[in-house]
């Protein structure tokens, strides 16, 4: 299979046009990125888990003092709902950033490897039909390679 060099992608069009790659970018986006990185790092720590556990234990132990009232229940329900709702967006931002970084690194490896199928570069941006077709082609290529290796081993 002939190897063709593909130009490096500017990543997503949004990022390419926003100037984020050169460090300028949108100040709100930069702030949220910085904020999300710190929050997700902190939220995944043992300290955050310990604080959450303490809050739930204190809430549970305070039940008798509030006669297990609806207001007492509403406090924990409302608090956890708000935190969960906000954390979805913060964690999703971090996941998007991590995913993009992994894809860029994999694309770089595909570009650098001789014999790699460079149609796989930017595969995450394909629509589902094209992605399934590419997956089928890769699976067929892998089977062919496996058969060739098996034949080579038998000859040895």
Q: What can be said about this structure in brief?
A:
71% of the residues lie in helices and 0% in strands. It is mainly α.
Question: What's the arrangement of secondary structure elements?
Answer:
Elements: H1 13-18, H2 27-43, H3 46-61, H4 70-112, H5 128-155
Which features does this protein show?
2 domains, transmembrane helix, transmembrane, disordered N terminus, mainly alpha, membrane, 156 residues, Iron_permease_Fet4
Please explain how this structure is put together.
InterPro entries: Iron_permease_Fet4 (IPR007251). Residues 1-12 have a biased composition (Basic residues). Pfam families: Iron_permease. Keywords: Membrane, Transmembrane, Transmembrane helix. This protein has five helices and no strands. Helix 2 (27-43) crosses helix 4 (70-112). The model is unreliable at 1-8 and 11-20 (pLDDT under 50). The chain is mainly alpha-helical. It folds into two domains: 24-116; 126-156.
